[in-house]
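Lay summary

Proteins are chains of building blocks that fold into shapes. Our project writes down both the chain and a compact code for its shape. Here are two examples, one after the other.
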Amino acid sequence: MGDSVLDIKKDNKLGQLKAILYLLQTNLEEFKDEVDSSYELLKIGEKTSLSKKIEQKMDNPIKDIFEFSSKIDNQVNYIIDKVVRGFLKKNSNIVEKAFKTKSNLDDLHYSIVLKEDNIDNRTKMFSFLDNFDLMDISQKHPIYFQFIPKQIIDKINYNEEIKFEN
């Protein structure tokens, strides 16, 4: 593999990492602002919706832990879905169409129509899954790719078609 290809891969990975960190930073800053406001208002006896939610959660912490866990799982799935979409878009030279076909609480399913369904193109797709499977998160949030022949595109039952244009 040439140095320029390795540089492009590093740049793409760096870009994805920057995007994820930016999203996390933005969400955390918004949450911090809300917490700061709630704290200051509580000093003068006013309760914000956040203060009221925390108070309710103190009354039934077990229920809220499960709800919070579910919300985290949804956010993790959302981020993983964005990463998968980025991967598919990056490989749009070999992917004709892609569909999000199913999403359960913890796993994500994609149907992929390759422009040329051959071992090399499938290997490129599976390399993503292989790398993902090496991470601990893959046990709780698995990703499934299903390859669909071009002839049956119209028979795919899907939730959403993944678009590759900007």
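And here is the second example, written the same way.
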Amino acid sequence: MIKEMDIRCHLYGESFSPMKIEKSTGITLENKIEVGDIVSKGRCKGELSSYGNGELCPQDEYKNSEDYGLLWIVETLQKYIDVFRSYGAKDIDLVIGVFYEGQCNFVLEPKAIKVIGELGIPLQVSCYESY
């Protein structure tokens, strides 16, 4: 039984600017790092970041939907992927974390899968047993 799905799209690159994306599109990104920011966690903690990073995550109203916001993310990507790339998003990775009890069975809707394929971006799925 699926307890939760964490769906997010990682946008990053050596010249990526999450601040410019937010100003240009009105979209709010999470876990933002601008090139030159001091990194606050991880193996590079305390160092200046050599890349920009931001995560596109579904808003709460979409997180609580049947697909946990997957369609919202892929449709947002479809609409803005050229803008993301123009502001330095060299790497774009769609990541799904599935948290389950007992058995990890879940469904990805065909429309979302089709758009992901058309965008040519990788889809990573990781499953975690909930306790």
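What can we say about the second shape? The longest strand covers residues 2-13.
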